[in-house]
């Protein structure tokens, strides 16, 4: 029986093509794997610039999210405030007929006549004063 790992379709191995530790035998420099360290400072600068760019991008997104949340909260508070207060609605609050107007007028009672006399007696107004007419200058003669 044949071993499946040794199929006839696999290419033949030539000793010159064997790669050990990622390098072929033809590499003359044994430190080729570490040559990237030659430009380590430039690599670090690029990495820091990339990280800083990403940080600023995410900070901007976070700020936009905070602004959206703030606007949403303000809008929600405004809606809650409108619900709390009873607003003037003309269709509901204004009388529709003359009878309703008369009823409201009858409900406006200032006071009885005895308190009205007390109000006149305690008043500081001059009952003999001329009637005020806007736009007319009065001369003291």
Automatic annotation (TrEMBL):
Acts as a repressor in the regulation of translation initiation of poly(A)-containing mRNAs. Its inhibitory activity on translation is mediated via its action on PABPC1. Displaces the interaction of PABPC1 with poly(A) RNA and competes with PAIP1 for binding to PABPC1. Its association with PABPC1 results in disruption of the cytoplasmic poly(A) RNP structure organization. The gene is Paip2. One of its GO terms (molecular function) is mRNA regulatory element binding translation repressor activity. It is found in: Cytoplasm. This is Polyadenylate-binding protein-interacting protein 2. Belongs to the PAIP2 family. Pfam families: PAM2. One of its GO terms (biological process) is negative regulation of translational initiation. Its main location: cytoplasm. The keyword Cytoplasm applies. PANTHER family: POLYADENYLATE-BINDING PROTEIN-INTERACTING PROTEIN 2. GO terms for cellular component: cytoplasm. The keyword Repressor does not apply. It comes from the Eukaryota. Keywords: Cytoplasm, Translation regulation, Ubl conjugation.
